[in-house]
Design goal:
Elements (H helix, E strand, L loop, with lengths): L1 H18 L1 E3 L5 E8 L7 H16 L4 E6 L7 H10 L4 E5 L22 H8 L2 H9 L2 H4 L1 E7 L4 E5 L14 E4 L3 H9 L3 E4 L5 H6 L5 E4 L1 H6 L2 H4 L2 E8 L3 E6 H6 L2 H9 L1 H25 L3 E3 L4 H16 L3 H16 L4
Parallel strand pairs: 2-3, 2-4, 7-8, 10-12
Antiparallel strand pairs: 1-2, 4-11, 5-11, 6-9, 6-10
Helix pairs in contact: 2-13, 4-15
Bound molecules: alpha-D-glucopyranuronic acid (GCU).
The site of alpha-D-glucopyranuronic acid (GCU) has 10 residues, from loops.
Length: 340
Amino acid sequence: ASLRQRDSSTAKLLAARRSQQHKLSGGGTKTVFKLAFNQTEDHPQYVAGVELGKKLEEATDGRYSIRVYPNEQLGGQADVVQNLSNGTVEMMWIAASILEGYNPDFVVFNLPYMFDSTEAQTQVLSDTDLLSDLYTSLEASKSITVLTGVNAGTRNVYNSKRPIRTPADMQGLKVRVQQSDSQVAMIEAMGATASPMNFGDVYSAMQTGVLDGAENNEAVYHSMKHDEVAKYYSYTRHLLMPDYLLINSKTLAGMDEADREALLGLLPEVQTAANDGMVEFANKSIAQSEAIGAQFNDDVDVAAFKALVAPQNLASVNQNDARIKLYEGVQAANQAHPAK
Ligand code: GCU
């Protein structure tokens, strides 16, 4: 049975390959990688992905390019990453927490109040020596390579019922989290009931009252129209979780060396473009949310929330040396770039 399975997945892989290769006029073929994205076309990661495709096409004389599929057209992140692993989708942007299901050590950067500032996070995500073991840890078993990591804003809690000032205000709220144990544990420690689900299902779940709220950065709160159905946005500032750009490892290994180097050489630009775009994206959306009645509340007892999650953070980091090493990297970055 396993052989048959393998044969049919190989056949699917070859079919997918055929459909995306076109003949180039000067001979050879053009390969277009599918890059899956779960948000809108105005998100900086969409723009950065499109730019990467153009530059890759130039750098490889047209042999490689990228098409970005926004709005969960290829599915939610938890499903798409399986398709990336089996090679039917070549690339994707993914929230860091989803990778905990494949290698639990990814958890360190996904813990609440881990990074003191965006700058500290950027420093860590630029430290290729610190990250190389983590980023290649899924290549042999899952054919997943992390190409780069980027800032994805600061996550805050929003809901349809009331502003959150203290942990007591979280009581009784059903709050959507990403599909990972760390995210469930986080929201439960903060006082609410956690409900893991795909990002694209959150709007209708809040609209129908299945959920009371969710947590995300201001830009996504507006671009996904969550501000229409959950008007209380409170600055719990509990999480700066990275997003990662992934590629199927066999796809990457299958490129000619010069083409692969061209792709890898473009990554620092992708990272900067996504990071820079994020700040502006968040700033301009706040006024737009306010215009339709959203209320932003910055009177939050952040120290109380920090105290509630501290014990589980410590327990999680202390699981093994790999995590402790990543944690030490974060601490050094936090010292260099403290909260403002
Ligand atoms: C952020 C992040 C996405 C993630 C989403 C979510 O918007 O950039 O990668 O999917 O949060 O909460 O699921």
